[in-house]
Design goal:
This protein is mainly alpha-helical. The longest helix has about 40 residues.
């Protein structure tokens, strides 16, 4: 097992390199980079990102009397006509675009290996501090939605397999399909209208993970306040999160229940509970565990993006989305690097769980 783990860790290196290389190459062709953001601000077309930069970067070159329109000349940036080429050069140097793309890419990799992600272009704060600041929100959503979906899906899937074809199986399948078909963001808006001071009840808060007086509450009060703020976002996410896992669990159990070893176990007089959880469970759950890494990463990041936006939960999903719009490349690449690394390690953990549930599986005898 040790050799297998080592091989998997070594394979992470080219995988991570490929992810970063492809993403970096795509970014080179994306219009509206950080230099263009500042140029747009200077020409009266800027957005929030340029506003933040102009408020935090000051003179952009150490000269408070510098006039960006001090010269004419052509530029490779759209909208830069009439701006001094020296000013454009200062912008390029500030953002690191004065170096060739290949040199910038390998410099980025070298820094990321040491977990040095630099500073945000537009927020005047280190990227690592920014990510750590947003981490609690995403961790809360990701862990809770994964736990809740599996706590609902596995028992429900087993029950549906045992009652296959019954009225229970039919009406629960209908509920699951309807829940899966409703977009999480649409259901979140409905919850806000009904329960968060929209048109009916004002029972739950609209924004944040905790209340303003959180530090003044007792331990029990803090727990209740935390759960109070998470109630609506988690409800919106859970509605569709458990559908796939439930049906996967049911089908996996049905396949195992029909096998000969189950018939033999029943013929020996074993109880149904012993057959299901002593024999069927560990075999049927292998395919469910295989989907855990994707479910966790999705819930941790992409799955909660719109929910974070709707409920004003300032987490990593929302941070990554805004960074892409702002062309804040250090934040974009740092998010990509961290979540790619997490995904690779979670996939490895998933394989190790295989061997824990079914000791007959031996990855040492497989070709990687």
């Amino acid at each position: 097992m040790g050799a297998y783990i080592l091989r998997r860790i070594l394979l992470m290196i080219p995988t991570l390199f490929g992810i970063m290389a492809i993403s970096f190459a795509v970014i080179q062709f994306a219009p509206g980079g950080p230099v263009e953001q500042v140029i747009a601000k200077l020409t009266g077309q800027g957005g929030d990102a340029a506003d933040r930069l102009s408020g935090s970067s000051g003179d952009l070159g150490g000269n408070s009397n510098f006039d960006p329109a001090g010269g004419e000349g052509s530029s490779k940036y759209r909208g830069a006509q009439g701006l001094d080429p020296e000013f454009i050069a200062k912008l390029e140097k500030q953002f690191g675009f004065d170096k060739p793309p290949l040199e910038r890419f390998f410099m980025m990799l070298w820094n990321y290996i040491r977990f040095d992600f630099g500073e945000s272009y537009f927020r005047d704060v280190s990227v690592l501090d920014l990510i750590l600041e947003k981490m609690p929100v995403s961790i809360s959503l990701g862990i809770w939605i994964t736990l809740l979906s599996y706590m609902i899906s596995i028992p429900l899937g087993i029950r549906k397999a045992v009652k296959d074809g019954s009225s229970f199986d039919i009406w629960t399948s209908g509920i699951i399909i309807i829940g899966y078909a409703i977009p999480a963001f649409l259901f979140a808006i409905l919850l806000m209208v009904v329960f968060a001071g929209g048109s009916f009840f004002d029972w739950f808060p609209l924004r944040g993970l905790t209340s303003e007086n959180f530090d003044q509450l007792s331990l029990g009060g803090k727990v209740l306040d935390y759960l109070w703020h998470l109630a609506l976002p988690l409800t919106a996410l859970v509605l569709s999160a458990f559908a796939t896992t439930t049906l996967l669990t049911k089908n996996s159990f049905l396949d195992e229940i029909r096998k000969q070893y189950v018939v033999t176990a029943r013929a020996k007089g074993l109880s149904e509970h012993r057959v299901l959880y002593g024999h069927v469970f560990r075999n049927a759950m292998l395919i469910v565990i295989a989907g855990f890494p994707g479910a966790f990463i999705s819930a941790f990041f992409t799955g909660s993006l719109l929910i974070e936006n709707i409920f004003s939960l300032d987490g990593l999903g929302l941070l990554g989305f805004r960074s892409v719009l702002d062309r804040d490349y250090p934040v974009v690449f740092a998010n990509l690097y961290i979540f790619s690394l997490m995904g690779l390690f979670v996939a490895l953990i998933s394989d190790l769980l295989y061997t824990w549930i079914d000791p007959r599986i031996d990855f040492e005898r497989r070709d990687v």
